[in-house]
């Protein structure tokens, strides 16, 4: 008997889409990390202001996920994930186009809310896919979720570091 996880084609496609959303979210968010020296040079914020600036993303995520989570139970979670990715695509350029530190903070709030919209349904969708297929491999699904979260956070700063000088 093989220890390899047996999953159906539908399960592979569904989990692949959910994991892709997670990866893209983390990749795009972490692209900002190499831009920090640029913000420091351009706006000369205090370390406290820089901390507030980057915590604004987390505050927005904290405030939006309790709202978006129940929405994913009421509506198609795929639509919410897609909507979040579209919002993220629109809000990310606002971060680097900002002309004042308060604009960067506002853009980061929008980025956090966008990621909240797309990220809220991902884990429940992944669990639903596993549950509907009857394999009950929640541990493997959650490990995959965490792995792609980390991979996005690894590649984002690398790509951002290459793109920042441009």
Outline the structure in words.
Helices cover 83% and strands 0% of the residues. It is an all-alpha fold and 166 residues long. Helix 1 (9-30) packs parallel to helix 4 (77-97). The radius of gyration is 18 Å and the shape is elongated.
Calculate the mean pLDDT score and round it.
Answer: 86
Low-confidence stretches: none
The first-to-last residue Cα distance is 53 Å
- The helix tally amounts to 6
Q: Determine the strand fraction and express it as a percent band.
A: under 5%
Estimated helix fraction:
over 70%
Total strand count, please? 0
Shape: elongated
Provide the structure class: mainly alpha
Largest sheet: none
Topology:
Layout: H1 9-30, H2 36-43, H3 47-74, H4 77-97, H5 101-133, H6 138-163
Give a summary of the structure in a few sentences.
The protein is an all-alpha fold and 166 residues long. 83% of the residues lie in helices and 0% in strands.
Q: Key terms for this structure?
A:
166 residues
């Amino acid at each position: 008997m093989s220890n390899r996880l047996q999953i159906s084609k539908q399960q592979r496609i569904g989990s692949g889409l959910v994991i892709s959303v997670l990866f893209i979210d983390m990749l795009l968010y972490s692209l900002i990390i190499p831009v920090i020296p640029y913000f420091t040079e351009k706006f000369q914020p205090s370390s406290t202001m820089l901390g507030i600036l980057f915590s604004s993303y987390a505050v927005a995520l904290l405030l939006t996920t309790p709202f978006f989570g129940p929405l994913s139970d009421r509506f198609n979670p795929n639509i919410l994930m897609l909507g979040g990715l579209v919002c993220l695509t629109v809000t990310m350029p606002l971060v680097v186009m900002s002309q004042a530190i308060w604009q960067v903070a506002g853009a980061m709030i929008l980025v956090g809310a966008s990621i909240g919209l797309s990220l809220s349904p991902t884990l429940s969708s992944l669990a639903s896919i596993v549950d509907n297929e009857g394999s009950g491999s929640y541990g493997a699904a959650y490990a995959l979720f965490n792995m792609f979260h980390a991979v996005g956070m690894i590649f984002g700063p690398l790509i951002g570091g290459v793109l920042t000088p441009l």
